[in-house]
């Protein structure tokens, strides 16, 4: 295993109405090639900011990050956005092929990869539809297929299932896992759901807010390939859940006390 | 079993009632202009309103047919249409281009918006003398007049259209490596299209307004000229023919643009 992502003393400060907000403070971590990492924390803890920096959409105030490329003509990263990330004036097929088209890949490769991932997420019959005709779950399938089809070094996912109803969420989580098992991409996945993090990840980074820091790291060594049913019935996952829950609980309370003062 | 068939019966009756009311609305939409014309015809024929100023529709249609047969009317219509179409394009194309660039680059937007805001309130017809001085009295000056009046609503709506694009789509494009040209063609232009087309619709209405007024003042051909000259000669039915033609083309253009709109924005 080789190191894929290295983050070193990353800090981000925002100015809001002359007031200074420390969104991220001294973030350090290192991720191995092929790992599935979840970043878990309450809303407003800066986890989206961290992801946006890695996605090249924001610049850090100080510190570095480094994503190892294998030297091919691959994009460094692709992001799965929240539900609105599917572009309404492009068909399902055009959305999935977006990244390949933007970097002007050969037409044959665009066609091959697009139809492969359309098939994987079960959207082939809907490829000519516009997003307005799709359900929320189907839109997120488009978003996931788009990121995988782009074949990046790493995948960044920003709470992609947060807006879905529970049944759909379970189905998509398992689909994501099965595509990931096939491709073995390095993934950073942001969520505020403890269950989701346990089901998906190899390691969970627990974040706390104001300033946003990574407080703790939890290793999940449940066997793979994972399925919702097995993970749920495994007593080990219940222990992990409680551990994380207790941790977040104290965090939330501490920050509340801090704020009331 | 009986309960069920009763329930179905109730729903069926309700469905039929809704269908009937929809059909009634359609009939109302079609019949209102016809109804108006009938009243007009009646009032004019019975001289309740003065038929010298408001000739009955049947007379106007007769006049339209005889004017059309002579071929002269067709010439005026042709002249007006050419002015409208080319003037419209002359205004819309630069307006869309500038609007997209202004929407995408805030520094350019800040430079141009005060100029646009200052020039917009001047009625184009008030500019007509200057336009005549610069471009002469030929056809081109009429097209420029239309272009100037179409330009402002289209440029303003195009800027608004670009600004209205959800920021997340710009993020998606950036994350997936769009270069400026792709961003322009695949994100800014299609994303701005709905609001932009509203501006084009507005521009079309203004173009018609402007050409008729301009032809009344400074032309010796065109539909506006037909209206004005016939009014001066007190040929009232002939004047009404001009009005009918404008109404007809206005309606036709807005139908065409609506068709174009649904072609260009299939995803809305």
Automatic annotation (TrEMBL), chain A:
InterPro entries: AAA+_ATPase (IPR003593), ABC_transporter-like_ATP-bd (IPR003439), ABC_transporter-like_CS (IPR017871), ABC_transporter_ATP-bind (IPR050166), P-loop_NTPase (IPR027417). CDD domains: ABC_NrtD_SsuB_transporters (cd03293). Residues 5-234 form the ABC transporter domain. SMART domains: AAA. GO terms for molecular function: ATP binding; ATP hydrolysis activity. The keyword Translocase applies. Keywords: ATP-binding, Nucleotide-binding, Translocase, Transport. The keyword Translocase applies. It holds the Pfam family ABC_tran. This is NitT/TauT family transport system ATP-binding protein. It comes from Aquisalibacillus elongatus.
From TrEMBL, chain B:
Its main location: membrane. The chain crosses the membrane at residues 27-49, 81-103, 115-137, 143-165, 206-228, 240-260. It comes from the Bacteria. InterPro entries: MetI-like, MetI-like_sf. PROSITE patterns: ABC_TM1. One of its GO terms (cellular component) is plasma membrane. Residues 73-257 form the ABC transmembrane type-1 domain. It is a multi-pass membrane protein. It is found in: Cell membrane. The keyword Amino-acid biosynthesis does not apply. Pfam families: BPD_transp_1. One of its GO terms (biological process) is transmembrane transport. Keywords: Cell membrane, Membrane, Transmembrane, Transmembrane helix, Transport. SUPFAM superfamilies: MetI-like. Belongs to the binding-protein-dependent transport system permease family. This is NitT/TauT family transport system permease protein. It comes from Aquisalibacillus elongatus.
């Amino acid at each position: 295993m080789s190191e894929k992502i290295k983050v070193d003393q990353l800090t981000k400060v925002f100015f809001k109405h002359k007031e200074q907000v420390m969104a991220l403070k001294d973030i350090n971590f290192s991720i191995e090639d092929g790992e599935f990492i979840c970043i878990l924390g309450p809303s407003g803890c800066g986890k989206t900011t961290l992801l946006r920096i890695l996605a090249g959409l924001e610049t850090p105030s100080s510190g570095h990050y480094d994503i190892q490329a294998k030297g091919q003509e691959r994009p460094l990263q692709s992001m799965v956005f929240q539900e609105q990330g599917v572009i309404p004036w492009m068909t399902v097929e055009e959305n999935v092929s977006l990244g390949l088209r933007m970097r002007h890949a050969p037409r044959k490769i665009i066609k091959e990869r697009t139809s492969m991932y359309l098939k994987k997420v079960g959207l082939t019959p809907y490829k000519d539809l516009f997003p307005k005709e799709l359900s929320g779950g189907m839109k997120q399938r488009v978003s996931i297929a788009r990121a995988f089809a782009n074949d990046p070094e790493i995948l960044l996912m920003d709470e992609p299932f947060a807006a879905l109803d529970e049944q759909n969420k379970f189905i998509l989580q398992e689909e994501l896992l099965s595509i990931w098992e096939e491709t073995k991409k390095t993934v950073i996945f942001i969520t505020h759901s403890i269950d989701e993090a346990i089901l998906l990840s190899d390691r969970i980074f627990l974040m706390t807010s104001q300033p946003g820091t990574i407080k703790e790291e939890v290793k999940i060594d449940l066997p793979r390939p994972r399925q919702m049913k097995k993970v749920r019935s495994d007593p080990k996952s219940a222990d992990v859940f409680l551990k994380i829950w207790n941790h977040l609980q104290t965090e939330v309370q501490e920050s509340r006390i801090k704020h009331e003062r | 079993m009986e309960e069920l068939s009763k329930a179905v019966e109730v729903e069926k009756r309700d469905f039929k009632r809704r269908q009937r009311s929809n059909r009634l609305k359609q009939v109302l939409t079609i019949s209102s202009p016809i109804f108006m014309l009938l009243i007009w015809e009646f009032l004019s024929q019975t001289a309740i309103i003065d038929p010298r100023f408001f000739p009955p529709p049947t007379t106007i249609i007769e006049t339209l047919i005889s004017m059309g047969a002579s071929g002269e009317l067709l010439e005026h219509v042709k002249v007006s249409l050419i002015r409208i179409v080319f003037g419209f394009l002359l205004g819309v194309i630069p307006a869309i281009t500038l609007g997209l660039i202004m929407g995408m680059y805030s520094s350019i937007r800040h430079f141009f918006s005060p100029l646009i805001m200052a020039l917009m309130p001047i009625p184009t017809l008030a500019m007509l003398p200057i336009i005549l001085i610069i471009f002469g009295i030929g056809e081109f000056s009429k097209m420029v007049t239309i272009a100037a009046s179409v330009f402002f609503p289209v440029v303003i709506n195009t800027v608004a259209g670009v600004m209205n694009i959800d920021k997340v789509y710009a993020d998606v494009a950036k994350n997936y490596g769009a270069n400026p040209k792709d961003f322009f063609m695949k994100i800014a232009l299609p994303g701005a299209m709905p609001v932009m087309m509203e501006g084009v619709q507005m521009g079309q209405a203004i173009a018609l307004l402007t050409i008729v007024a301009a032809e009344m003042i400074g032309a010796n051909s065109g539909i506006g000229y037909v209206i004005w000259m016939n009014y001066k000669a007190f040929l009232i039915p002939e004047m009404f023919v001009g009005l009918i033609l404008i109404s007809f083309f206005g309606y036709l253009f807005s139908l065409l643009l609506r068709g174009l709109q649904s072609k260009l924005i299939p995803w809305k």
